[in-house]
Design brief:
The complex is a heterodimer of chains A (256) and B (255). Chain A has 256 residues and is an all-alpha fold. In chain A, 82% of the residues lie in helices and 0% in strands. The two termini of chain A are 25 Å apart. Chain B contains nine helices and ten strands. In chain B, the strands form two sheets. Chain B has a six-stranded mixed sheet, sandwiched between helices. In chain B, strands 2-1-4-5 form a four-stranded antiparallel sheet, with helices on one face. Classes of the chains: A mainly alpha (256), B alpha/beta (255). The structure holds adenosine-5'-triphosphate and magnesium ion. Magnesium ion (MG) binds next to α1 of chain B.
Chain lengths: 256, 255
C-alpha cells in the first residue's frame, strides 16, 4: 500500500501535464487558426460556461439521457438475461448465436434510418437505437462469461453432488459476474453513440439538437462545447463503471 | 475376487471424441481402508481412470462398481481432490472447505463447525478467512483435501495432490496424510508421478502402461509402518527394493 501511493501521485501529475499539453495545443491550433470553424480552447470553454448558465445544456441532457437510460436498463435486464440463457441452453445458443455474431460485427448505425421508417421519430425510436447498438455486446459478454466457466469448477461441483441449479447459482453466475458487468459497461459506451446518432439522424432533440442548431447558426464555440461535454460525460460515466467493476470484482477473486 | 474390495474396475476402456484411446481393458480391485496408487508415464490415462471411478467421466467400455453398486455418476461415498485444486476464487477458505456440505444443504452453523475442524486437522488454522489467491500452492491443496475430508466419504480420490509443492513440503504432506489416514480409516486412490511417493505411501501400487493405459503390474509393498519413523521407512530394505522394482519396469517406458 505504501509503495503504491507515490506511483499514484506521479501518475496524477503526468495526467495533469498531458491535459495541459492537450489544451495548450488546442488553444494554439484555434488561434493559428486551422479553420475558421475551429474555435480555440478558451473560446470553447467560455461557450461551455455560457450554455450551462443559460440552462440550454442541462435541459438538453435531461432529454438525451432519457432514451439512453431506458435503453441501457432494457439491455441490462433483457440482454443479460438472454445472454445467460444462451450460455446455459444449447438450444437457445443454436438458435440465436449466429444472429448476435452478425449483429456484433454489423455497423449498427446503418439500421437507424430503418428504425425511423418503422417506429417514427419519437422516444421509442431513440430507445431502440440505443438498444440496437448496446445489446450485442451486452448479450455476447454475458454469453461468453457463462461459457468460459472453468470446467474444473463445474466438475468439482458435480463431484460433490451439486445439482444443475446449484451449479448455475453457486459456480457459473458468480464466475461470469465480472464479464457480464464489463459487457454492461461496453454497452453503455455503445449506448452513448446510439443516442447521439439517433438525435442527429432521427429528430433533433437534446444534445443532437444543440449540436445541429449551433452549427447551423455558425456558433462554433457553442457547438464544440456541446460535443466536448458529451465526450467528457460519456468518458466519466464509463470510467466510473470501470472503477466500480474493479471494486466489486477485484481481479484476484475473479473466476477467470 | 477378495470380498473386501470397495472399488472394482471391470474391463474399463475409454476413447475420447477425436479418437484418442486413453484406457483399454483395465481391471482393478481396490481394497477397503487401504491406500492404492496409480502410477504410470504422463498421458497414460491416470486422471481419466480416476475420474471414471469418481463418476465424472463415463467409460466407453466396461464398468466400475463401488460398494456393490454400479457407478452411474458421482456419489456421497466418494470425494475428489483435484490436481488443479478447483477452489472457488471468490470464497474464503472456510466456505471452500464447507462447500461440499453447502451443496448437501447443511445449515451454515453446522457446516462451519465441521469445516473449522478439518481446517485445523490439515494445518490451516488461522487461515479461515483467507482467499485462495492469498495462499501458496501447498496450502491450496490442503484446502482441497479438507473439503474432501469434510464430506466424510469412504473413498478419497486424489489426483497428484502433491505435485505442485517443493520436496520438503511434499514429504511433510505425505507424513501428514499417513497420520490423518490412521485416524480416519479411509480408502484412498492416489495418482502420482513419483516412484518414491508411491512406495512410501501405498499398500498397493498399480502400474499403468503408456497409452492406451492398461494395468501392467500390481505391487503390494510389504513395509512395516506402525511405530517406525518416516526416515526409517525411507531406509527400509523393502522400501528400497520396491522403488527399484518399479523403476526397472517404468524405465522401459521412457525411451
Ligand atoms: N477431454 C479430453 N479429450 C480428448 N483427449 C483427452 C481428454 N482428456 C485426456 N485426453 C487424452 O487422454 C490421454 C490420457 O489423459 P490423462 O489426463 O488421463 O493422462 P494422465 O495419465 O493423467 O497424464 P498426466 O500424468 O500428464 O496427468 C492423454 O493422451 C490425453 O491427451
Ligand atoms: Mg493427470
Amino acid at each position: 500500500m505504501n509503495r503504491k501511493e507515490p506511483i499514484l501521485k506521479r501518475s496524477l501529475v503526468w495526467q495533469l501535464i498531458s491535459f495541459a499539453l492537450f489544451f495548450g495545443l488546442w488553444e494554439l491550433a484555434g488561434r493559428w487558426p486551422v479553420s475558421l470553424a475551429f474555435p480555440s480552447f478558451s473560446k470553447t470553454f467560455l461557450a461551455l460556461v455560457r450554455i450551462t448558465a443559460d440552462g440550454s445544456l442541462p435541459k438538453a441532457y435531461l432529454v438525451t439521457l432519457q432514451p439512453l437510460l431506458i435503453g441501457i436498463a432494457l439491455c441490462g435486464i433483457a440482454g443479460i438475461g438472454f445472454g445467460i440463457g444462451m450460455g446455459l441452453s444449447r438450444a437457445i445458443e443454436w438458435a440465436s448465436l449466429p444472429l448476435f455474431i452478425i449483429l456484433q460485427a454489423a455497423p449498427m448505425a446503418a439500421i437507424i434510418p430503418l428504425i425511423t421508417y418503422i417506429y417514427g421519430i419519437g422516444l421509442t425510436a431513440k430507445v431502440l437505437a440505443v438498444v440496437f447498438l448496446a445489446a450485442p455486446v451486452v448479450v455476447m459478454n454475458s454469453y461468453k462469461g457463462i461459457r468460459n466457466t472453468n470446467p474444473s469448477l463445474i466438475q468439482m461441483c458435480r463431484s460433490f453432488l451439486g445439482t444443475r441449479r446449484q451449479e448455475v447459482i453457486k459456480i457459473i453466475l458468480p464466475h461470469a459476474g465480472a464479464l457480464i458487468f464489463a459487457g454492461l459497461r461496453l454497452g453503455l459506451a455503445m449506448g452513448f453513440i446510439g443516442v447521439v446518432i439517433a438525435e442527429l439522424l432521427i429528430t433533433p432533440t437534446g444534445i443532437g439538437d444543440l449540436i445541429t442548431y449551433h452549427s447551423s447558426v455558425a456558433d462554433y464555440p457553442e457547438m464544440f462545447a456541446t460535443i466536448v461535454s458529451i465526450i467528457v460525460i460519456a468518458a466519466l460515466a464509463i470510467h466510473g463503471l470501470e472503477r466500480l467493476e474493479q471494486k466489486i470484482f477485484p481481479p484476484e477473486i475473479r473466476g477467470s | 475376487m477378495p470380498a473386501d474390495a470397495i472399488v472394482q474396475v471391470r474391463g474399463v476402456g475409454k476413447s475420447y471424441d477425436g479418437g484418442v484411446e486413453a484406457l483399454r481393458e483395465v481391471n482393478l480391485e481396490l481394497p477397503t481402508g487401504r491406500l492404492s496408487t496409480l502410477l504410470g508415464p504422463s498421458g497414460c490415462g491416470k486422471t481419466t481412470l480416476l475420474k471414471i471411478i469418481a463418476g465424472l467421466i463415463a467409460p466407453t467400455g466396461g464398468e466400475v462398481w463401488v460398494k456393490g453398486k454400479k457407478v452411474e455418476g458421482p456419489g456421497p461415498e466418494r470425494a475428489f481432490v483435484f490436481q488443479d485444486f478447483a477452489l472457488l476464487p471468490w470464497a474464503n477458505v472456510l466456505r471452500n472447505v464447507a462447500f461440499g456440505l453447502e451443496l448437501r444443504g447443511l445449515a451454515w452453523e453446522e457446516r462451519a463447525k465441521i469445516a473449522r475442524d478439518y481446517i485445523g486437522r490439515v494445518g490451516l488454522k488461522g487461515f479461515e478467512a483467507s482467499y485462495p489467491h492469498q495462499l501458496s500452492g501447498g496450502m491450496r491443496q490442503r484446502v482441497g483435501l479438507a473439503r474432501a475430508l469434510a464430506v466424510d466419504a469412504d473413498i478419497l480420490l486424489m489426483d497428484e495432490p502433491f505435485s505442485s509443492v517443493d520436496e520438503q513440503t511434499r514429504r511433510k504432506f505425505q507424513e501428514d496424510l499417513l497420520a490423518l489416514l490412521q485416524v480416519e480409516r479411509k480408502t484412498v486412490i492416489f495418482v502420482t508421478h513419483s516412484i518414491e511417493e508411491a512406495a512410501y505411501l501405498s499398500d498397493q501400487i498399480v502400474l499403468l502402461s503408456p497409452r492406451p493405459g492398461t494395468v501392467s503390474r500390481i505391487i503390494r509393498p510389504d513395509i512395516e509402518r506402525g511405530g517406525t519413523s518416516p526416515d526409517e521407512i525411507r531406509r527400509d530394505k523393502n522400501y528400497l527394493d520396491v522403488v527399484d522394482e518399479i523403476w526397472q519396469i517404468l524405465k522401459r517406458y521412457v525411451d
